What we know:
The structure holds two protein chains of two kinds.
Chain A lengths: L1 H7 L4 H4 L2 H17 L3 H17 L6 H22 L2 H22 L4 H9 L5 H31 L6 H30 L18 H23 L3
Chain B lengths: L1 H18 L6 H25 L7 H21 L4 H14 L3 H22 L6 H25 L1 H4 L4 H31 L8 H10 L1
Helix pairs in contact in B: 2-3, 2-4, 3-6, 3-8, 4-5, 5-6, 6-8
Amino acid sequence: MIFARRRNSPATVIHRLHPFSKMAAGMGLSALALCLHSPAALAVLLAFVFTVLAAARIRPTLRQLLSLLAFFTVFSAVNFVINHDPAHAATYTLRFAVFLTAMPMLSLTTDPQQLTRALAATPLPAGISMALLLVWRFFPLLAADVRQMRQAARLRDRGDISPARRLYRGVLVPLAFSVIEYTDRVTLALELRGFSPDVDRTCANRPRIGQADVMFSLLALTASCAAAWLQWGVGA
Amino acid sequence: MSETMSSVSEVSETEKRTVQPGYWGTREYVFAAMTAAALLAVASIVIPLTLPLRIPGLTNSINGLFGSFFVTIALIRLRRPGSLLLITGIYSLICLAVSPLVFGFVLFGGLFGETVCFLIFRGYPGKLAPVCGAVLYEMAMFPAAMTLSFFFFPERYHHVAFWIILIAELVICTTSTLGAVLGLKVAQELSRAGKLQMEPMEQVEQMESRA
């Protein structure tokens, strides 16, 4: 039991934070990024998100890093070609980077059990909370399924099928079947465990806002204030 | 005696309250969640490939092809009024964590499609209503996205002419109709494979009440 608890206990202080404090920080940073136009201000927000991800010991693989680098290079190059302004291109690229990284800050550091307990405390209907958790849990599985289906379709192709037909027959139809299969299995599993969308979920150990959450929120607020000062304070 | 009778009636009232099933069952919630996950999986592949090109409506038109495909299948399966709102509601709540802008236009698309389909078809019976619902959802998202984007980035969107939006809407309509028709075709295949019921709602309700 002790070993099980140790194995299940969150790894870092970021993992132990209340899911809603991470969600609030992520959404606040994304909303602020929409209003900022200065590359320096956006860089401050991005630096904060990277610091949080580093504190959570999240290290992307080399392949992920290269994919992100290629994507942002193309994104900034297209923006530069359209506007002929490097500052403008940098602003849009940094803003998009904040959007892409603020969300993983929550998803990569929150396990489904933590999120279930947090959602159980909200007035959301039990069915909707369960549906949100299922999307959270099955999105990576379905994304992996799509990748496998694309690869399988490419391997089966002998060059006599058009790409559109390959996409339809090789990816869309199997994905639709996969969605139905998952639905049947998950519904059966939930009903066997006595789940009902009409009855509220009970929870013995609800996550509470602690000192770490207050500290984290203050740090996020400081980063936001610093970014706002760089945007409106320095130039004004 | 009267106390016992009143307590018995209280118990039966409580039983009635607990036994009474809700509007949506577990299967419907799970199916809506899986559809939202499929929409998210497709969007996560399509959007990074199309967004850097910055052509107005390109992302929506390509995403519309796949989105309407899954939404049509889901509407054929769920059928009840409010189905589109359930799917888009779950999807938009997930998108809320990405951006409040995305939440806004996804929910607007769902509300618009749902309202029109409710007023015309009273739900999603037959084959036309699910196709209409999916296409309207995809088409309503683009103007909502443009309006919200203009509100936040006026310097970027003020030069987009009305005719560009109109052409983009036509392209979105074409691709999402194509996706919805393909979805209908696959739903028929799923029905033949015994994975999906395509009977009218009345027949399903009759079968449920008999069971």
